[in-house]
Amino acid sequence: MMDGSVNDMTAPVIECRSLWKVFGDRADEAMKAVLQDDLAKEEVLQRFGCVVGVRDASFSVREGEIFCIMGLSGSGKSTLIRHVNRLIEPTAGDVLIEGINIGELGSKALREVRASKIGMVFQNMGLMPHRTVRENVAFALEVRGMARTERFAIAERAIATVDLAGWEDRYPDELSGGMQQRVGLARAIAADPHILLMDEPFSALDPLIRRQLQTQFMELAAHMKKTTLFITHDLDEAIRIGDRIAVMKDGEFVQVGTPEQIVTEPADEYVADFVAGISKLHLVTAARIMEPLDAYQSRNGPIDLTGSLRARPDDLLNRLADLSIETDAPLAIEDDGKVIGVVTKKALIRGIQGRSRDDEGGLPNGG
Amino acid sequence: MADDKSFSLLDPFQTVDLGLADWADGIKGWATAHRSAIQPLKRAVNDAIMSIEHALQAVPPMIIIAILVLLAWQIGGRRVAIIVGVSLFALGLLDPTAWGLAMTTLAIVTSSVLVCIAIGLPLGILAAKSDRFQAAIRPVLDTMQTIPAFVYLVPVVMLVGIGNVSGVIVTIVFALPPLVRLTSLGIRGVDASVVEAARAYGANPLQILFKVELPLATPTIMAGVNQTIMLALSMVVIASMIAVKGLGNEVLRAMGRLDAGKAIVGGLGIVLLAIVLDRITQGVAQTGRERGHRHWWQGGPVGLIAKMFGR
């Protein structure tokens, strides 16, 4: 089991326990063989003609948390998210929504969970072209049998939340891509679900609109405290939005951690490759790159730091860079009024490069 | 079955006789024997057809033209309304008897198409949902469309007797297939991501069918209805052989007497009726937005009245 859990007393809102999905006619047979012999993806395909979509995925998402699953296309992330509202049946493993095992629900109870507890946003929007924006947004409420005036009133509030007031009577094809996805978002929040499933919601949009929508989504998420599972193939997006990130490859979780952990301590080459191009300026803190004062002094002899500029351990590299421009002396890192470490120019530059403090320019290893 | 022909591997068919024709002929006997059982049903259907015809005959032609033109304007726009109006006038001017005959034919075609929709739509939905049903029904539909009408004309007449009801049955056999096919095609062609979204928001299968699949498949289904109407009209002459009245009967009688003039009247009448029905049903397949207004009630005569009252 990948260690994605966090020491937190609140019960997880979404929990997946060793979830497997094998596609193909001989899925059950293949599943047994995989569990017995720990077959690799290629072997399963060769011997059973089955594709392993999700391989032993376990994770839990706490109340109000945004959990990003990052992976390239074909890594199984879209398959995985569809297990959470059981659009896809798992081959093995369980999914729990607020403690309820949704694999055990009857079809009626399952539909009730989908309509009231989970909102979903799709990469290709999935809006109904024959319905107006208002009718689209009110769909989950309509399905539950809510009266017309009531559901339209709620839908209009949701539409206003995503800044689309005035567009209620339009049809989806009259809207731009960014606006359509905002309708998708309004539809997801209209029924006021606890959980949002975001399946690459912004991937199909151009970069500027994507950034705007990310910002808007983050404001909404912070405001509404929805527990969110967010799928993306864009690490930048995952880092911007996610409280925690799971990196997925070939249906398996490679690493689960906070954005800073992923960027500074990549678990393997695959993650390191991804992280290589990511700017560390807004992610890495002084605490991570500083040399402890004792170690510095034992190496370089006593140092007088009375004149040097001060920073705090949780200051980001970007701030350290600003300070460092002002002086040639090392920066003093101060916690509770006591100097605890030193950041030299070299350490800072190495930190920005994503290399270790004493690295002389060899292999990047991020630490 | 003379014995002078011995069995040959190269041409086995000369000597093997499975008696299929005799067996099929037995259907005729079975049909005749069960005739009485079918009679009450026949009477009910015939009454329904006759009441449609009486209604169409009772309304003065100019009023029917007005209704159809307004309907065409609402459904298909101004251009379609003009085509429908001109066609109906031409139909009436063909011959003093032409209008009455056309209404009789219209009644038969309407009955046939209504029954086709009642049968074809559910079958099409079933075929869209089940690959096995689709595979099973395909050869049946192929047969219905290609087998010559004369083949099933006789058993139907033996079972039901001549008249309108047999005419409707024979027409349905020929006109039903495209509706089933296109309903299935339309539903299968609905964007899977929209259906998935509906599922994700808790819609049940019936809600998905009525709120998502059928509305989005409507243009294709209407193309099927349009084809069914056209095929029903093309059966009018054959149906007249079993004593169905109307334009088809004119053509049949004219053929018997080599009366080219009467044949033209009947034939053109059928063509003009086909144009009217085709244009109106094609208009249904097109959404109002393709013609530049947002809702159906914002265009056509209804839109005009709404505008006049300042909505």
Give me the secondary-structure topology.
The complex is a heterodimer of chains A (367) and B (311).
Chain A: E1 14-23, H1 27-37, H2 41-48, E2 51-61, E3 66-70, H3 77-84, E4 92-97, E5 100-101, H4 107-117, E6 118-121, H5 133-137, H6 139-143, H7 148-161, H8 177-190, E7 195-199, H9 207-224, E8 227-232, H10 235-241, E9 244-249, E10 252-257, H11 259-264, H12 269-276, H13 286-289, E11 291-292, H14 293-300, E12 310-311, H15 317-325, E13 331-335, E14 338-343, H16 345-353
Parallel strand pairs in A: 3-8, 3-9, 6-7, 7-8, 12-13
Antiparallel strand pairs in A: 1-2, 1-4, 4-5, 9-10, 11-14, 13-14
Chain B: H1 20-33, H2 35-58, H3 61-76, H4 78-93, H5 98-129, H6 131-146, H7 149-160, H8 164-188, H9 192-200, H10 205-234, H11 236-240, H12 247-257, H13 260-285, H14 300-308
Helix pairs in contact in B: 1-7, 2-5, 3-4, 3-13, 4-13, 5-6, 5-8, 5-10, 5-13, 6-8, 7-8, 8-10, 9-10, 10-13, 12-13
Overview of the structural elements:
The complex is a heterodimer of chains A (367) and B (311). Chain A has 367 residues and is α/β, with parallel strands linked by helices. Chain A has two domains: 62-89 and 104-276, 3-Layer(aba) Sandwich (Rossmann fold); 286-353, CBS-domain (Roll), CATH 3.10.580.10. Chain A is 40% helix and 21% strand. Chain A has helices at residues 27-37, 41-48, 77-84, 107-117, 133-137, 139-143, 148-161, 177-190, 207-224, 235-241, 259-264, 269-276, 286-289, 293-300, 317-325, 345-353, and strands spanning 14-23, 51-61, 66-70, 92-97, 100-101, 118-121, 195-199, 227-232, 244-249, 252-257, 291-292, 310-311, 331-335, 338-343. In chain A, strands 6-7-8-3-9-10 form a six-stranded mixed β-sheet, with helices on both faces. In chain A, strand 13 (331-335) and strand 14 (338-343) form a beta hairpin. In chain A, helix 7 packs across helix 8 (177-190) and helix 15 (317-325) runs antiparallel to helix 16. Chain A is globular and about 75 Å long. Chain A starts with 13 loop residues before the first strand and ends in a 14-residue tail after the last helix. Residues 1-8 of chain A have low confidence and may be disordered. Chain B has a single domain (36-285), classed as MetI-like (MetI-like fold). In chain B, 79% of the residues lie in helices and 0% in strands. In chain B, helix 5 (98-129) crosses helix 8 (164-188), helix 6 (131-146) packs across helix 8 and helix 7 (149-160) packs across helix 8. Chain B is mainly alpha-helical. Chain B is built from 14 helices and no strands. The model of chain B has no long low-confidence stretch (mean pLDDT 88). Chain B has helices at 20-33, 35-58, 61-76, 78-93, 98-129, 131-146, 149-160, 164-188, 192-200, 205-234, 236-240, 247-257, 260-285, 300-308. At the A-B interface, helix 4 and helix 6 of A face helix 9 and helix 10 of B.
